[in-house]
Write a structure and sequence with these properties.
This protein is α/β, with parallel strands linked by helices. It has a single domain (2-54, 123-341), classed as Arginase, Chain A. Helix content is 37%, strand content 13%. The chain is built from 10 helices and 10 strands. The chain has helices at 31-43, 59-62, 65-80, 106-113, 125-144, 174-184, 201-207, 256-273, 299-310, 326-341, and strands at 2-4, 17-19, 22-24, 47-49, 149-152, 190-194, 213-220, 245-250, 277-282, 316-320. The strands form 2 sheets. Strands 4-1-5-10-9-6-7-8 form an 8-stranded parallel beta sheet, with helices on both faces. A two-stranded antiparallel ribbon has the order 2-3. Helix 5 runs parallel beside helix 6 (174-184) and helix 9 packs parallel to helix 10. The protein is globular, with a radius of gyration of 19 Å. The termini are close together.
Length: 342
């Protein structure tokens, strides 16, 4: 399995995250990639290759052009406004303030385009987001060229980013753009399986009214887990997309035996769908020691997870999402890939 990776992810090195009422060092940090790369090297797993630039219009079919322009200019606008710290949203267009206007001032823009305040924008964030997207597109190109599998080691992650909002450490929805790119290149049906602990709200919102991309998410119950406002089992798609969105929310303390029951249901739906390719939004924050999650999967369980995904016998692109128990993230990520390959 080829592993696509770029050191350019280090351009995003934010120093602040709002967590529990405090400004802390972000859980989503460059060191996450170091642990994964170290484990890849120690196990001799796969060829780690640098991405090439992929020509694709898929990004502009997934994300709003004004939102993309905002991402590129936000840091400069924030600094020009005279703010000293990193850019963090402090005001939102709430239910009591309906408006068709997007503010001109960066403070208002941040709130308009932000879905969660934990995620700051810092110098280099936009550059890293575009580099991360290119890593995902390169992985998609390997699948389109006939590879059975590929791993896009993306950072920053993407599955919380919607058409026009960032948050949850995500700015561009890498898996969604990769899926659109596959569709643009001739695949009729693509399935996106999200195994991150947190619901892939952005991916769901992007494909909610479409029948050509099947979305399935296994995650912590949104009544108790971020992102809270999407991810319930009765969210099944809208219009043409009805019946092509599946959520499997699970309670605190979920073990692998219970988690895998949901996985089996998701795999059945993917088989029924008749996908030409599978994209796995690979988050390993379902791990029992993850600091911001509440499932109880052990490291060996990730091997079994990969093996079960492989049973679909589909061309499969793994796109890195979350996982914040930094010490073990390398072991758990590579275990999924090794289980798949075995």
């Amino acid at each position: 399995m080829k592993v696509v990776y770029t050191e350019a992810h280090r351009k995003r090195a934010s120093k602040t995250e709002l967590y529990g009422g405090e400004l802390v060092s972000p859980f989503e940090c460059p060191e996450r990639m170091d642990y994964i790369l170290d484990r890849l090297n120690k196990t001799g797993f796969g060829e780690v290759i640098s991405p090439h630039e992929v020509q694709s219009t898929a990004l502009y079919k997934i994300h709003d052009k004004d939102y993309l322009s905002f991402l590129k200019s936000a840091w400069d606008e924030w600094k020009t406004a005279g703010f000293k710290g990193e850019a963090i949203a402090t005001v939102w267009q709430s239910r009591s303030m309906p408006s068709s206007y997007i503010p001109d001032f960066i403070e208002g823009k941040m709130g308009y385009y932000c879905l969660a305040a934990e995620t700051s924008i810092s110098n280099g964030t936009a550059d890293a987001a575009w580099e991360s997207l290119n890593v995902a597109l390169c992985g998609a190109e390997h699948i389109l060229s006939g590879d059975v599998s590929a791993f896009s080691l993306c950072r920053p992650p993407g599955h919380h980013a919607s058409n026009d909002q960032f948050g949850g450490y995500c700015f561009i929805n890498n898996a969604s753009v990769a899926a659109q790119h596959m569709r643009d290149k001739g695949l009729d049906k693509v399935a996106v399986l999200d195994v991150d602990f947190h619901h892939g709200n952005g991916t769901q919102a992007i494909f909610y009214n479409r029948s050509d991309v099947l979305f399935l998410s296994l995650h912590g119950d949104p009544m108790h887990a971020f992102p809270h406002f999407l991810g319930h089992a009765d969210e099944v798609g809208y219009s043409e997309g009805e019946g092509f969105n599946f959520n499997y929310p699970m309670p605190a303390g979920t073990s692998f035996s219970k988690w895998s029951e949901s996985l089996e249901l998701a795999l059945q739906q993917i088989s029924k769908f008749g996908a030409d390719a599978l994209i796995v939004s690979l988050g390993v924050d379902t791990f029992e020691k993850d600091p911001i999650s509440f499932f109880k999967l052990a490291s060996d369980d990730f091997i079994k997870m990969g093996a079960r995904i492989a049973s679909l016998k589909l061309p499969t692109l793994f796109v890195m999402e979350g996982g914040y128990a930094v010490k073990e993230i390398g072991i758990n990520t590579v275990n999924v890939l090794m289980g798949f390959e075995a």
